[in-house]
Write a structure and sequence with these properties.
heterodimer, A: 404 residues, alpha/beta, six-stranded mixed beta sheet, five-stranded mixed beta sheet, 8 helices, 23% helix, B: mainly alpha
Amino acid sequence: MSVGTEPAVSVSHVSKQYRIRQRGEGPATAAEAALGLLRGRTKPSYFNAVDDVSFEVAWGDIVGLIGRNGAGKSTLLKVLTRITAPSSGRAVLGGRVGSLLEVGTGFHPELTGRENIYLNGTLLGMRRKEIERRFDEIVDFAGVDDFLDTQVKRFSTGMYIRLAFGVAAHLQSEILMVDEVLAVGDAEFQEKCLGKMREVAKTGRCVFLVSHQVHTVRALATRSLYLQHGKLIYDGTVEGALEVYKASFERVGTDDVMEASMRKGTGEVRFANVRSAKDSFEVAEDKVVEFVTVASPELSRKHHVLCDVLDANREIVARCDSRLVEFYVNPSNEVRGTVTLRTPWLRPGVYTVDLSLWATRVATDIWEGACSFRVLPILPYAGTGTPNSTSGAPVLADFAYSQK
Amino acid sequence: MNVPVLQRKGPARQTRIVIAAPRRWSLPDLARLWEAREVLLRFSRRDITLRYRQTALGVIWVILQPLLAAGVLTFVFSSVAKLPSGGVPPILYTFAGLLLYNLMNSVISRGSNSLISNSSLVSKVYFPRLLVPLSTAGSALLDFVVSLLFMAVLLAIYGVAPGFAVVLVPVWLLLTVCLAAGVAFMASALTVSYRDVQYIIPFLLQLVLYASPVAYSIGKISPHYRLLYDLNPLTWLLDDIRWSLLHQPQPSTPILTLSVVVPLVVLLFGSFVFQTLERGFADII
């Protein structure tokens, strides 16, 4: 890089350790804590969310941080944005950091659009002068000129998100850290934001991006880091990191089963076991996934199951929401169930299944890569074509030609 | 590549942020606090704006609240209980006491809840956390200033002229804020882990209102309890401000010294406790 020799971000041996609290253990009130002191402490168990991570980032880089749920991406980002302190290690940032871990941090519903722009901008690390200078641009970007003096609580969701993003997009800090926030907003707006981030990197600043969405990382990042169980196991090109990412899903079921405690969701009801009925299916065959839930006798609210089938690129090809077929899980019993995917016909290849359990809008268990299966290259068509005949579309169609 | 842009950004690049595991005990970094002063102003402004938005009387509440409270307390302590008020009209005596008490009360009660009510900020964005409880002092100070102006009106109405000591009012004000902020820092930091604190604080503040000479003078207190009053920092500050505003006798030198030293010590200790616990906030809240 042309500026100095110092990297934009330099991280050496950073670890973040959490104490794990088992259910019912650990004080929740001052009284319990006092009692605990008298009785003597029980030995706590520890868990390294980020484990001895070291890397450097040059100016002008857009770094995509990828990894599966619970790999420590968000924790690492929180350490680098100083929201939480590392347990050990050291990181040096070569400039002001603007962070965007949530859309509309500090937005207050009772304040007007104008007041929120100032409040939010200040929180994100902008000076008053900077905000004043960029005020019109922000309003323009968000397209809310007529509502500047309206309380944000009267905004539509779309306006709210656009305004929040508008402020963040105009951050002038040298290092920008973004977490998963692109997931909100419509496609056009997302494209606008991606463009904004590329612009940032072009001026020689540095962008740090955490995402679950492969296409975002691929579209944006110039370099990628892959985290697994808190450890940095790949540092290099985006394609390379995506290979590692995909591979981690293919090995599912053998050595890399996600511990229940590492999975997202409230944990009130969890899957005990999920597996594919067969290792491989033919294209036109019904694909069956079997699951077992853990009984939680104290719960009675019905839960629904969401089953996503993802291809090797981690793109969803089929979504099966059990509410649509009126299937619910009674959490007080151990439920053994199956999901049967009849159509669409899947193209030959490896597929993974993300299974989640929901109480209306609250996820009690999200199991990414719960199981995987292979679709064999045995086509259901009578004739033969070229490889071209079955590529191009994400799924295969069940179709017919006839002459009248 | 991009050299022109980089050169323009040159000076800003000088900022260098070092992130490392915090030391076990630490005091707030004043340079960082100063750097983030705009956050403090924004927070204070937000609190003030929000408090009177969608109220019909708006800022009039700032005067009305202490006036109503002073009226009730004067009635109870002077007219019903017949406690002395140091030879000045009881309403003046009580209002002067409430000036200080309300300042302390609002800094402590709003401050101690501030971290939890801003928990989404604490876990999503970085800024020196100390600014959150500190910013509550902004709206409390505004209330104080408005009440003080009203106090001046009352003094004029009753024809009481404060002596030269009136110039010390800002000092008592600052010391009260220091005392209250120190307590608020501790309380807010503890509330992050133990929500019990938010139930204890209002009770204690209520207790202090009655157990300090806010609405009555200390003259008739039985010697049994006298020591309790003498050990109460609010008593000292109340003596100080009444000396400044109402021509009450000048507090003794030890009391004057204590009323300066103790609030500063409490502030220092509070910031120390806060800063030491701060590293865990985002993980626990």
